[in-house]
Structures are given as C-alpha cells and as structure tokens.
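TICKET: design request
STATUS: open
ATTACHED STRUCTURE:
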C-alpha cells in the first residue's frame, strides 16, 4: 500500500460558524500532539471535532483524519459533515471489499466504528504506516476497559497516528478508574501511570468507605489529583461555565410499594446465590461477586417480576405509577422518553401504551429501525412516547421535542443515567425538563439512587468540576450501609 496524495483542491472552510466556547476549544488544542475534549453533553463536541479536523487537514501535514465512533452514530457523523463542511467522508464498515477501496482512496475523512477498526486492525495498521493520519475518537468511554481485546487493539494502533483526540461528556463513565485506558491511549501512561491495577486500587469507589475513614481519605486524594495530571492536554466546559442558560432540570422521585406477590419473589431472591441476568439482550455475570449477582436479580424483580417469572400476571404498583404519570404528561400535550434497562419492558410498554402512538429503541433492533423511530418521534406530533434502553439510545441523539424523561428502572452505570437524561437537556430545549425516577420503597432501587449520586460526585471531583473541599461537603458514602441492609449481611460487599 503506497502513500496516496490527493491532487484535487479541497475546501476546508466550515459552512457554519461556531459558538465562542467552541472556537476557544479548537484554538486551545489544535496544535497538541494529543488532546481530550471532555465538554458536558449538549455543548456540541461534534462541531468542535469537525472544526479541529478541518484545521488539521488545512494547516498540518495530514493526509487523512479518521473519526471512530459507535456503530449507531456513524450516520449521525456523516450527516454532520454534510451540515458543517464541504467534505463527504468515506465510511469503513464490516464490508471488507468496500474497505479495501476506501483505504486505497485519497479520502480526506474516514468515519468508522470501534469494532471495524479492531477487526480490520492489520489492514488499518498498514494504512497508517503509508499515510499521515490523525484520529478523533468519539464516545471514548468505549475504551474504558484496558483488558478488553478491543481496547488492546487500539493501544497497539495508537503510536501510528500522527495526532490523537478523544472526546466524551462523561470521561468518568461509571467510576474514576474508567478514565485510565482513555488517557493511556493518548499518552502511553505518561500522566496516569502504566499500571492500571495500581490506579484502580487507589481510585475505586468501594462499599466499605462509610466505615473506614483512612480508605476514604486515600480515595479522595487520588481522585482529586486526576484532573490536575491530565489538564495540560484536556479541556472541559459545562453548560454553566459556558454561560449557556438552559431551562432547569427538575428531579422528581415517584415512590411505589411492593405488590404482595412481587414482595415474596423479592425476598426469595435474597436467598439465592447462582443467578444470570439478561440486560439489553446480553448476558451479564460477575463471577467474583455473589452480592452483585443478587443485586442485579433484585433489580429485575423490582422493575418487572415478569423478567424472572413469566407466570407473573399482576400489575405492579410501579407499573400503575408509570401509567398515571404518562397520562398526566400526555394530557399536557408533551412528549416523553421512558427508559428501562430491559428489552422485555420496552416491548411490553410499547404494546400496552399503543394508544399514544409510541416508538421504541433497543439493542435487538437494527440501526435503520432505530433511526426510523427517532425520526418519527421528532417529526410526528401524534407520536408522544419513546420507550428505549439507555444502552441503545443514550448517545448522539438530540431529542428536545420532549421535555420529560422517566427512568422506570436504573442500573449501576452513571453514564447510562447522565447521558439518557441529557438527550432532552440540550441547547435547543425551551421548556423545563422533568426527570422522574421511579423507586419501590424498601428495595434495591434506594441503593441505586444513593450509589449513582455518590458516583456523580466522584466524577465531578475527577473531572475537575468541584474541588476536594467542595466534594467533602457533599460526599455521602451511605450506599455501603444500604447495600448491607438490602442483602441482610454484616459483611462488606
């Protein structure tokens, strides 16, 4: 594969002007060998990345820039290039024949997904040795697990890129140590160290912090130092720091009681040890933690007993609360997104609330089907509700036609929670955003609520949003005690 130099003239001028904070972001990082864009969701990181890319192609000795994103977001990126540039990008997909021609063309911009770059690694490696290529990784938390094959493949390719940028609104997607692999891809361990196990040990948000002040202090010191170490090549802005006045978020907790038979099922689960959990179509098992298995199972029965017992034919109190809530929202002539971690719930509610002309998005639907659902939800006034799993629809979507989101259930993942609610809390939103959290009293839901809050404060600390002193004022480690109570154990889990 030889180096191909394009001879035709390309217009690198953007078609649209950027906001001042977007211009500032590009100016700050444009000449860095590597950088991280950690702007909060809804601040137009895509526009920043495109303007950065245009500068690279115009002013630096780059032949090509690769955009790597999640499969479901490839089309979004192609559409954004049509809006903001004169460039039509090429797409690398799972079609190896097409990929051959793309990698042997004078393409200035190539858009692909994580899995394709990993699967076609050897061919991409040859391509990188023949060209001067920059890379922009969108939703870089995809690389948070340093032990996965996909992440290891990216580590192997990293030195071959001339310049590198990663971006995500939630760099600390779930726990502080999630940021290590993303930064390692950029600097090979120069800022956060080369030993992930040691980094994880120091920045792991544990359940025993409530009763161990020494561990807690060590954790807070380690986490507070993260952003200081990466700040020379990282930029982060929030809506508040950019001076963007968005409508307020109003968080509302809706409490329900256990249905009697549901309660019996819940109590039975507390005594079980061997469980398997299907979440968004994928099996999840943690072989190292019986407690986690039980907690995942408890989440299922609290969400919908039908998930573990098909014979369950009652209507839970939580489901009744959802119906009342949706009726109220629709009566106000407003749209709503209902989030659940379980495909079975999405399909069930899609049928049950057919009177509202709903749409659905989950992991078992094709990308085309998901895109059609999004288009209908945005454009059809009669379509009032979108039922979706966070895993399939939490990223890359602007859904400000709605100003209500309902979390029918929530898992342990902070990224799922933050990204899902911010689908409606973006620059084009004009109404107050209502965030409803449905919780069954005396259940694992209460632990999840406390845990997500603790994770969010830890993320604020790691991202430099708050100081160590500010963190100390709001930190709450009571989730450790709550989980002990839920599982009826005196042991730390």
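STATUS: resolved
RESOLUTION: sequence designed for all positions
ATTACHED SEQUENCE:
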């Amino acid at each position: 594969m030889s180096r191909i130099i394009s001879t035709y003239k390309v217009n690198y001028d953007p078609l649209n002007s950027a906001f001042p904070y977007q211009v500032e972001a590009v100016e700050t990082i444009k000449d860095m060998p590597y950088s991280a864009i950690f702007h909060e969701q809804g601040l137009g990181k895509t526009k920043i990345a495109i303007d950065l890319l245009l500068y690279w192609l115009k002013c630096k000795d780059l032949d090509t820039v690769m955009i790597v994103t999640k499969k479901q977001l490839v089309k979004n990126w192609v559409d954004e290039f049509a809006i903001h540039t004169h460039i039509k990008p090429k797409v690398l997909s799972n079609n190896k024949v097409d990929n051959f021609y793309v990698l042997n063309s004078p393409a200035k911009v190539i858009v692909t997904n994580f899995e394709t770059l990993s699967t076609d690694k050897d061919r991409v490696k040859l391509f990188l040795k023949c060209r001067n290529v920059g890379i922009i990784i969108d939703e870089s938390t995809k690389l948070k697990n340093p032990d996965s094959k996909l992440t290891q493949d990216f580590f192997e390719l990293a030195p071959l890129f001339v310049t590198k940028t990663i971006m995500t609104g939630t760099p600390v997607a779930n726990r502080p140590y999630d940021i290590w692999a993303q930064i390692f891809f950029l600097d090979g361990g120069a800022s956060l160290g080369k030993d992930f196990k040691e980094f994880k040990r120091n920045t792991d948000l544990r359940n025993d912090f409530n009763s161990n002040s020494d561990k807690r202090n060590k954790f807070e010191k380690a986490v507070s130092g993260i952003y200081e170490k990466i700040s020379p090549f990282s930029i982060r802005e929030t809506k508040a720091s950019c001076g963007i006045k968005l409508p307020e978020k109003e968080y509302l907790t809706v409490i329900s009681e256990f249905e009697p038979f549901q309660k019996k099922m819940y109590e039975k689960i507390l005594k079980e040890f061997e469980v398997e959990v299907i979440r968004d179509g994928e099996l999840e098992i943690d072989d190292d933690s019986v407690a986690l298995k039980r907690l995942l199972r408890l989440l299922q029965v609290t969400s919908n007993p039908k998930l573990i017992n098909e014979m369950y034919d009652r209507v839970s109190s939580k489901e009744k609360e959802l119906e009342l809530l949706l009726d109220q929202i629709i009566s106000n002539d407003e749209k709503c997104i209902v989030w659940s971690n379980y495909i079975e719930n999405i399909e069930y509610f899609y049928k049950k609330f057919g009177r509202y002309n709903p749409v659905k998005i989950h992991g078992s639907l094709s990308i085309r089907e998901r895109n059609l659902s999004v288009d209908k939800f945005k454009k059809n006034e009669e379509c009032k509700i979108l039922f979706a799993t966070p895993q399939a629809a939490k990223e890359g979507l602007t859904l400000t036609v709605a100003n209500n989101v309902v979390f029918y259930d929530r898992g342990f993942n902070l990224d799922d929670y933050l990204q899902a609610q911010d689908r409606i809390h973006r620059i084009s939103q004009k109404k107050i955003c209502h965030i409803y959290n449905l919780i069954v009293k005396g259940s694992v839901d209460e632990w999840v609520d406390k845990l997500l809050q603790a994770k969010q404060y830890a993320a604020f600390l790691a991202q430099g949003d708050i100081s160590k002193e500010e963190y100390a004022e709001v930190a709450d480690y009571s989730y450790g005690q709550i989980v002990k109570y839920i599982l009826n154990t005196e042991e730390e889990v």
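CLOSING REMARK: The mean pLDDT is 90. Residues 64 and 108 are 4 Å apart (CA to CA).
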